[in-house]
Amino acid sequence: MKKKNIFSRMWHWFKGLSKFKKILILLVLCALAFGAWKLFFTPKEAPLYTTAPVKKGDIVDQVEASGPIAPVNTTEVGALVSGEILEIYVDYNTPVKKGDLMALIDPTQIQANYDQAVASLSSAKEELEAAKVTYNLADINLRRYQSLYEKEYVAKTDLEQYELEYATAKSSLNSAESRVIQAQASLDSAKKDLDNTRIVSPVDGMVLTKKVSEGQSLTAGYSTPEMFTLAEDLTKMQIEAKVSEADVVKIKEGQTAQFTLDGYPDEKFSGVVRQVRTNYTSSTSSSSSSTSSSSTTYTVVIDVDNEEGKFMPGMTATITIITTDKKGVLLVPNEALRFAPSFNTQKYDKTGVWVLPSENEQPRRVDVSIGIIAENVTEITEGDLKEGDKVVLAERGHTSAAIANSSRPRGPGGRR
What we know:
Elements: H1 2-15, H2 19-40, E1 49-53, E2 55-71, E3 74-78, E4 83-88, E5 95-96, E6 101-105, H3 108-150, H4 156-195, E7 198-200, E8 205-210, E9 217-218, E10 226-231, E11 236-244, H5 245-248, E12 256-261, E13 264-286, E14 292-305, E15 316-333, H6 334-338, E16 352-355, E17 364-373, E18 377-383, E19 390-395, H7 401-405
Antiparallel strand pairs: 1-19, 2-11, 2-15, 3-10, 4-6, 4-9, 5-8, 6-7, 8-10, 11-14, 12-13, 12-15, 13-14, 15-18, 16-17, 17-18
């Protein structure tokens, strides 16, 4: 009842005021209402700059590459003799031991050559025995006539006749010995050719490729026809990764490499860098009719363990080689190294970031030196920065072309 009386009296008081005073009071009330709405219901204006604190953390430098998985050692098995393949005893993935028969080449003609070589050697040996008998007889006669000549029982012409017979017998003996050696060499060659009709495994391993079929004719001429490829040990394999010249200088033997395979998308595997080969491959690509670019790559060999048998030769591995691992270093987001405020028109010779001292101040530039560049952050090695400083990443209402076109900070060549 009291409240009603209060509002009633206020209303009568308001009605009794002049028109000007009524308008003035209404304006004051509207101003108060607008001020309250502005204070309690209007959202605060967003900060002009987006920032992130400088942090200490761990960072790794890594090189990315790709390459095929292959056995550490492979052996090509070929045919050393010509002929038709009669039988093949192995197929793809067949395990073999050293000396196992893998294929047989028709030995008919080679066997005939071998038999002929045996006969030739036998004949040559018989001729040698006959030549020895003739030589021994000529030697005895010559010595006897030399003794008789010294006692002047025979004429000089008789001695000369036996000297000639001796020389002829000795020459025949030498020729017979040479023919035996030649016949023995021909027999050895024929024996080797006959043995080579049996294609046997030179190592313990597994058949990776089979390049021939039964009934196929092989011609062993200036080059050896390849028949099979053997992998000696599939439990130890290697990746031959192609690495650019800019990254290969970071890689050293013994570094850890991680890799993934399309066949195992949810798994990561590891290996160890065994070798950085000095031989290189150069390639040239044309981007237009008037310009071209060249690139040089090196081969990095990574040893991998395949005890579980998951890896097959030829699989393509996507590799990450960890070249440097640092702990507790200053880190800034990569965006900070690409940012420049809209009011800045100056070009700088050094890399830098923009630091925001407070919300009411303009950003100030700090020159820095950078180290490792990771996917999202970059190491700061020098500069007037400390942990907790706020570096600027973006400016409200402005889009940096550098941010839009790049996901990694630029190196020393381009500064903002």
